[in-house]
Amino acid sequence: MEKLPKVGLPILIGFIILIVIIAKSAVTIDSGEAGVLFKTFGEGVVVDEPPMGEGFHIVAPWNKVFVYEVRQQEILERMNVLSSNGLDIKLEASIWFQPDFKQLGKLHQEKSEMYKERVLLPAIRSAARSVVGRYTPEQLYSSKRDAIQQEIFEETKKIVEDQYIQLNEVLVRDVTLPPTIKDAIERKLKQEQESLEYEFRLVTAAKEAEKQIIEAQGKADANRILSASLTDKILQDKGIEATIKLSESPNSKVIVIGSGDSGMPIILGNQ
């Protein structure tokens, strides 16, 4: 009976050691993640093999696995930048990015898990300051927002494209100007809008006046042509036609032939 504990104790210890080894060796990588293997007694970070994908993996207990999120991520960055005339502008931008999956080992080896703070954020700040410094506050507030956004994206991409980071998009969410500058710009834009409306009304009125002049000129030309074409002979013929039609009507009347001006009939009647 006393020998049983002595035999069972090494087995128990071995079982515990086995559990610890399995626990240390088992690595589960979740959806949207990838692992970088570090070989303690080898070459260190494995850079010449693809990263470890999603699922369950067994590694040597003396090695380490560094897990990275490889799906698209977002960073919201607020920064102060200067416009072309030296005014302080507050810029808020969203950066959509993800690590380069194939180069994940090199990213970990050269930049570490702090790659966002060490590479991406300094790059977006530098690009934003460079781009915004080319524009006036008025351009930042109104017409150039899309152009500024695209330029910041392109300049940031140039910086990080060889840093194992995939930049997907940069979105300028807000541009905040000093209150006095913003009010001045809004007043100017309002005045410009009112001026455009006034010019539109003037152009509309001028076109309407021109239309009326053209219509009046057309009527005058038509009357002049008609007057020129109505000779005495034509008027007499028209009068005769009218007299014939009136004589055929049942209303009582007296027609005096040749007694009117130019020899036209005079029509007398009670209707």
From TrEMBL:
GO terms for molecular function: peptidase activity. Residues 25-189 form the Band domain. Keywords: Hydrolase, Membrane, Protease, Transmembrane, Transmembrane helix. GO terms for cellular component: membrane. SMART domains: PHB (SM00244). The keyword Transit peptide does not apply. One of its GO terms (biological process) is proteolysis. It is found in: Membrane. This is Regulator of protease activity HflC (Stomatin/prohibitin superfamily).
